[in-house]
């Protein structure tokens, strides 16, 4: 039987690359060879810090690629994810070629390209042990950050999200499959949480009890965006779904935003899910994994820079009513992620990869501290959004 690339090779601890045994690396080479990549594979190394998929960097004699094993527990119909990705890619390539993308002002912007498999030209490869794999081109000369370094970087992160929204704004939503049903529908996450509470006793710890109380006090708030959507105030549009800070690539030299990666959740949604996710992940200077809970803070000055960058390029996409919900979106998406982490902690860490049993509890506490910080500054954040309204 073939060694599964992701499974720990029992009895084989020989490591050529940090984090990979020789057997694992060999199995990964076999998977990489199934795709129509250029050049002989020189090295394969783990890449990034995603919580859901497994990602590797493939270096060949010619260039670099990103090899990923999709988490099919999360993406139950991975073929739909790949269909969306190819559709998106064709659309964005033609938009980038148009003269009408004047808001890009001639700046560099890239979208990773799907590399098909050699055998049948499909956009994926299923290995013998059942893994669903894909290969994308690597965006070279760029880096990502887990926490913001400068205010001008914050502006770039907002600008990059705005460029992405502009590029997909004319992609009809009904041409995109729903690859992850219920994603960012906060009331559904609350229902999942209530089901988890019925099945599982809440751990008898201060942190867990504090999370339960925090959620209980905000149950009425969870449907703020869904209600506005149902009233027709917020339209469904194509969105990225996961534009957290380290999914934006910044030019290695200039620091300019050049690509938004991790495209599995591009699907119909509200721009607010994306704006909220960008704000929550960028304005927390301590990052998602901090254990310094008391110090977690939502940085308004960074929020101002992000929104300035975003609105400079995508301002014309948003109605006045849509702008009015930006503050709710920042608060809601922070809260929602805390709720998702906490429910997963109760369920035994089945969705978000965790290195120890309490990691998702700690991640939940960070997001709830961030939510509380946004609530404490709600008036200021609303004032800031209002000041950024066009005259
Ligand atoms: C997951 O796998 P990753 O890290 O790109 C999650 C996002 C969360 C994020 C929090 C499909 O993204 O929604 O915001 O973790 N993606 C999915 O770090 O659930
Ligand atoms: Mg992701």
Features:
391 residues, alpha+beta, Phosphorylase Kinase, domain 1, Aminoglycoside 3'-phosphotransferase, Chain: A, domain 2, 2 domains, six-stranded antiparallel sheet, three-stranded antiparallel sheet, 13% strand, globular, binds 2-acetamido-2-deoxy-1-O-phosphono-alpha-D-glucopyranose, binds magnesium ion
Write the layout of secondary structure elements.
Elements: E1 15-17, E2 20-21, H1 22-33, E3 41-46, E4 54-60, E5 64-70, H2 78-97, E6 114-115, E7 125-126, E8 132-137, E9 142-143, H3 151-168, H4 186-199, H5 206-216, H6 224-230, E10 237-239, E11 248-251, E12 257-260, E13 267-269, H7 271-282, H8 300-314, H9 320-324, H10 326-346, H11 359-376, H12 378-387
Antiparallel strand pairs: 1-2, 3-4, 4-5, 5-8, 6-8, 7-8, 9-11, 10-13, 11-12
Residues 50-52, 74, 242, 244, 262, 265, 288, 337 line the site of 2-acetamido-2-deoxy-1-O-phosphono-alpha-D-glucopyranose (GN1).
Structure description:
- The protein is of the alpha+beta class and 391 residues long.
- It folds into 2 domains: 22-140, Phosphorylase Kinase, domain 1 (2-Layer Sandwich); 151-388, Aminoglycoside phosphotransferase (APH), C-terminal lobe (Aminoglycoside 3'-phosphotransferase, Chain: A, domain 2, Alpha-Beta Complex).
- Helices cover 42% and strands 13% of the residues.
- It is built from 12 helices and 13 strands.
- The chain has helices at 22-33, 78-97, 151-168, 186-199, 206-216, 224-230, 271-282, 300-314, 320-324, 326-346, 359-376, 378-387, and strands at residues 15-17, 20-21, 41-46, 54-60, 64-70, 114-115, 125-126, 132-137, 142-143, 237-239, 248-251, 257-260, 267-269.
- The strands form 4 sheets. Strands 3, 4, 5, 6, 7 and 8 form a 6-stranded antiparallel beta sheet that branches. Strands 9-11-12 form a 3-stranded antiparallel beta sheet. A two-stranded antiparallel sheet has the order 1-2.
- Helix 5 crosses helix 11.
């Amino acid at each position: 039987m073939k060694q599964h690339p992701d499974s720990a090779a029992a009895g084989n601890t020989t490591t050529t690359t940090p984090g990979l045994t020789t057997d694992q690396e060999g199995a990964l080479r076999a998977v990489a060879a199934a795709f129509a990549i250029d050049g002989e594979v020189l090295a394969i190394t783990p890449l990034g810090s995603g919580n859901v998929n497994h990602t590797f960097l493939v270096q060949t004699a010619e260039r670099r690629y990103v090899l990923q094993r999709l988490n099919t527990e999360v993406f139950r119909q991975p073929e739909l994810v790949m269909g969306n990705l190819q559709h998106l890619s064709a659309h964005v390539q033609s938009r980038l070629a148009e003269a009408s993308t004047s808001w890009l002002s001639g700046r560099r912007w890239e979208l990773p390209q799907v590399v098909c498999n050699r055998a049948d030209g499909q956009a994926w490869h299923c290995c013998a042990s059942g893994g669903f794999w894909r290969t994308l081109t690597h965006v070279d000369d760029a880096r990502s950050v887990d926490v913001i370094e400068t205010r001008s970087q914050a502006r770039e992160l907002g600008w990059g999200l705005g460029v992405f929204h502009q590029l997909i704004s004319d992609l009809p939503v009904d041409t995109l499959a729903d690859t992850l049903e219920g994603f960012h529908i906060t009331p559904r996450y609350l229902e999942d949480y209530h089901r988890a509470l019925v099945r599982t006793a809440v751990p008898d710890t201060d942190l867990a009890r504090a999370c339960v109380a925090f959620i209980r006090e905000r149950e009425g708030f969870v449907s703020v965006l869904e209600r506005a959507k149902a009233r027709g105030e917020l339209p469904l549009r194509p969105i990225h779904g996961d534009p957290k800070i380290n999914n934006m690539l910044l030019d290695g030299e200039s620091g300019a935003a050049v690509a938004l990666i991790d495209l599995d959740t591009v699907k119909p949604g509200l721009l607010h899910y994306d704006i909220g996710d960008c704000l929550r992940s960028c304005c927390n200077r301590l990052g998602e994994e901090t254990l310094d809970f008391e110090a977690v803070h939502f940085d308004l000055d960074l929020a101002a820079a992000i929104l300035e960058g975003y609105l400079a390029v995508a301002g014309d996409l948003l109605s006045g009513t849509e702008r009015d919900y930006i503050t709710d979106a920042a608060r809601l998406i922070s809260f929602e992620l805390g709720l998702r982490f906490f429910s997963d902690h109760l369920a035994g860490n089945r969705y978000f990869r965790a290195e120890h049993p309490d990691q998702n509890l700690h991640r939940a506490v960070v997001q709830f501290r961030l939510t509380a910080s946004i609530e404490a500054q709600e008036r200021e954040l609303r004032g800031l959004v209002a000041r950024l309204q066009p005259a």
